[in-house]
Amino acid sequence: MLIDLHPEPADMARLVIEGMGRQPKQLPAWLLYDAEGSRLFEAICEQPEYGLTRTETALLEARAAELAAALGPGVVVEFGAGSARKVSPLLGALQPAAYVALDISADHLAPACRALQRRHPDLPVLGICCDYSLLEQLPGHPALEGHGRLGFYPGSSIGNFDPAGAQALLRQFRRLLGAGSRVLIGIDQPKAVQRLEAAYNDAAGWSEAFARNLLTRLNRDLDGDFQATDFQYRAWWDADQGRIAMALVSQRDLEVRLADRCWPFAAGEPLITEYSYKYSPEAFLALAASAGWRGAGRWSDPAGDFALHLLVQADSEQHRSDR
Which residues contact 194 (CB under 8 A, 6 or more apart)? Predict the structure, then answer.
């Protein structure tokens, strides 16, 4: 079953207008994930330069039993489920009461839920198309009733938010999951600059195509008149902010029309498509603590490239030692 709470076009226009008014211009990262954007992102995840997905998947498969024991029983709520492929080892070990997938792309979410249901035929599966960062609460549904909620947020997607936004999102998870909940979050950790930049500048050009597809969506959904040839894709490591910045950079002075307004671009001006912050274990736990969570477990690959953090609410009486 799929519940569609996708933002209305008017809400999308409002968010785009707010983003275009920033300095630098920056749009919500979820706008990248229409049907074509989701397909392109899946291709990025298969590229040799982009090891995050392979490392996280291998970690989930190898440590599924430990993760399930640490999470305990309940309903798994996955934020930003995408293809919902990573969660399968966890579901197999955990045998939860239900699985609820939240994602912004209905076109991507519906087939993902169907595929997951085939892999786990006895598991109640519910998809909710939404911007989970803005939900007041999860919708009423039998799959979400009568059991504790276990959050799952893989892919280091929290890195798409600046620290203040990430703190707000972690508080949002507390609100949506409810008292006594737990959440398992994937975190991409700092590494050599060359490796970081290569991951977002793959030789096959999928990352560039993913960013450029944003212009196609804006032209289609908000009557934009972007010309793709006017912009060049760039991705670079910003050491001062501890993040990869991805942008479409204007190649000349120009003006575009979007959402019934005109927006000037100077030559060399970036339109930020997304950021990807990288957190050390200490930095991430400090961020989590600022939002009312505390670390209750950590699992990492041997190279220390990626980690899964289990968080419990700081006012919970339950406690598990770090791994």
Answer: none
